Amino acid sequence: MTLTLIAAIDRCNAIGYEGKLLFWLPDDLKRFKALTTGHTIVMGRRTFESFPNGALPNRRNVVLTSRADAHYAGAECYSSLDAALASCDSDEQVYIIGGESVYEQAMELADYIELTEIDAEAPEADAWFPIIDLMEWSEESREDHPADDRHPYAYSFVTYTHW
């Protein structure tokens, strides 16, 4: 199994506010879809509940929740990250898509991190991505993009590899 954390972060590692994304960047959303389609996505309950149309299509949706009676259409529920990962096949590509506590739990287990680093600071945030320890992670690639008519801020697609 290959485990990848995927997120969009601002300059302060903020990832969200009140269950919503901080920035709307169409190319970030396209990249997220391209990377995760056909694979397993693992998320916390609040992240899943933030999706306006429920489970994301063409992906195995896995929700972590302590609620024993939880049922979400189009998703499998597990009580822990360990249980969710144990349900995955050895050749499965798994993406952790949030929120903050799930990223923290998965950080030392992950093989890769796929970030969209946004060159801006959100005015308000209540969820953050963990600090990337560069003694444990190396930057494998970076693709910089300037602000344009569809993207109000410059951003970079960055891939990190766990040592």
State the helical fraction: 10-25%
Count of structural domains: 1
How would you describe the oligomerization state of the chains in this entry?
single chain
**CATH fold description:** Dihydrofolate Reductase, subunit A
How do the SSEs run, as a string of H and E?
A: EEEHEHEEHEHEEEE
Based on helices, strands and strand pairing, what is the structural class?
alpha/beta
| First-last Cα distance | 16 Å
What's the tally of helices?
Answer: 4
CATH architecture: 3-Layer(aba) Sandwich
Unreliable segments (pLDDT under 50, ≥5 consecutive)? none
What average pLDDT do the residues reach? Answer: 97
Q: What kind of sheet is the major sheet?
A: 8 strands, mixed
* CATH fourth-tier homologous superfamily: Dihydrofolate Reductase, subunit A
Q: What would you note in describing this structure?
A:
This protein is an alpha/beta fold. The protein has one domain: Dihydrofolate Reductase, subunit A (3-Layer(aba) Sandwich), CATH 3.40.430. The strands form two sheets. The protein has an eight-stranded mixed β-sheet with strand order 6-5-4-7-1-8-11-10. It is globular and about 45 Å long.
Key descriptive features of the protein:
3-stranded antiparallel sheet, 163 residues, 4 helices, alpha/beta, 18% helix, Dihydrofolate Reductase, subunit A
Task: Chart the SSEs and their pairings.
Elements: E1 2-9, E2 14-17, E3 20-21, H1 26-36, E4 40-44, H2 45-49, E5 60-64, E6 75-78, H3 81-86, E7 93-96, H4 100-106, E8 112-118, E9 127-128, E10 137-145, E11 155-162
Parallel strand pairs: 1-7, 1-8, 4-5, 4-7, 5-6
Antiparallel strand pairs: 2-3, 2-9, 8-11, 10-11
